[in-house]
Amino acid sequence: MKTSTIILALATCLGTALPVAAHAASFDCKKAATPVEAIICADPALSKADEEVAVLYRRLLKLDPGARQGQREWLRTVRNRCRDVACLRAAYEEHDTQLRLSLEADNEEATPGAAPPALR
Fold first, then answer.
1. What are phi and psi for residue 71, nearest 5 degrees?
2. Which of 58, 60, 74, 103 is least buried, going by the fewest C-beta atoms within 10 A?
3. 23 with 46: CB under 8 angstroms?
4. Would you give the end-to-end CA distance of the chain in angstroms?
5. Where is the Lysozyme inhibitor LprI-like N-terminal domain (predicted)?
6. pLDDT tops 50 at residue 67
7. Is the CB of residue 25 less than 8 Å from the CB of residue 41?
8. Burial of 24 (0-12, 13-18, 19+ CB in 10 A)
9. pTM, entire model
């Protein structure tokens, strides 16, 4: 009985410590400087969404250096105005979609005359 109690206690401790380490925010959560960053770091799904948006943004930036201004604008006018998880989830979902559409458009411009993805 004592052994199972110890194992359960260790599993509980590890279970609460591991998700923090598994977060993949695009910034160092130890240096989270704003309430929005703290919310992102506290929520594994938001942290993952932040990292995914960062990956898409970096890909778009390689194709379109002007994307930097759009990202800054989104951070200032959308993401950083959120005050809760629901708002941030919606903001990240919408931005993820916008970045994907921009990447598709830039890829099509980079390869004129290429067949649509469904026909390749």
1. -65, -45
2. 58
3. no
4. 61
5. 29-90
6. yes
7. yes
8. middle
9. 0.71
- Tokens 């951070």 belong to 75
- Give 3-state DSSP helix, strand, coil % of the chain, rounded to 5: 80, 0, 20
Q: Which amino acid is at 93?
A: E
- If you average pLDDT over every residue of the chain, what do you get? 81
pLDDT higher at 54 or 3: 54
Q: Alpha-carbon distance 8 to 40, whole Å?
A: 29
CA nearest neighbour of 97 among 65, 64, 49: 49
